[in-house]
Design goal:
The chain has helices at 45-65, 98-101, 110-124; strands at residues 2-3, 6-12, 28-31, 36-37, 42-43, 71-76, 81-84, 91-93. With 129 residues, it is α/β, with parallel strands linked by helices. The protein has one domain.
């Protein structure tokens, strides 16, 4: 995603909810800034992938635009309520939180958005088109 608040790389991961848990507790994940604690397990899988993808996109956009372009990693967890117990390098959000979670202070002006947007379009054009 690209907008005045910056460049965001969204990684989406789905996880099944445990059948043996009842109510809202079965749909809560806690993010402590380092890992994700689901009701029956803990992992970093989506976090690490989001960071790698953001780093790669930042390098590509920085090289192709001639300006430093940080890309912010975001992990989206459909169907889960996210409890944030600490801040980390990756934003972890429920899809319903995307609009508010990605809003923020203006980081890019209109010219920068146009330059980055052009490069993103070039990156996503299929060769068969």
């Amino acid at each position: 995603m690209l907008g005045p608040a910056g460049v965001f790389v969204l990684e989406t991961k789905t996880r099944r909810k445990p059948k043996h848990l009842k109510g809202k507790s079965k749909a809560q994940v806690t993010y402590d800034g380092q890992c994700l604690a689901f009701p029956t397990f803990t992992d970093k899988y989506g976090l690490e992938q989001a960071e790698r993808n953001a780093k790669y996109l930042s390098e590509v956009l920085t090289s192709s635009t001639g300006m430093k372009v940080p890309a912010n990693p975001v992990l989206v967890l459909p169907g889960w309520y996210v409890n944030r117990a600490g801040a980390g390098s990756v934003k972890v959000l429920n899809p319903k939180e995307l609009a508010s979670g990605l809003a923020g202070k203006r980081q890019l002006d209109d010219e920068q958005i146009a330059r980055i947007g052009h490069q993103l379009k070039l990156l996503t054009v299929c060769e068969d088109d």
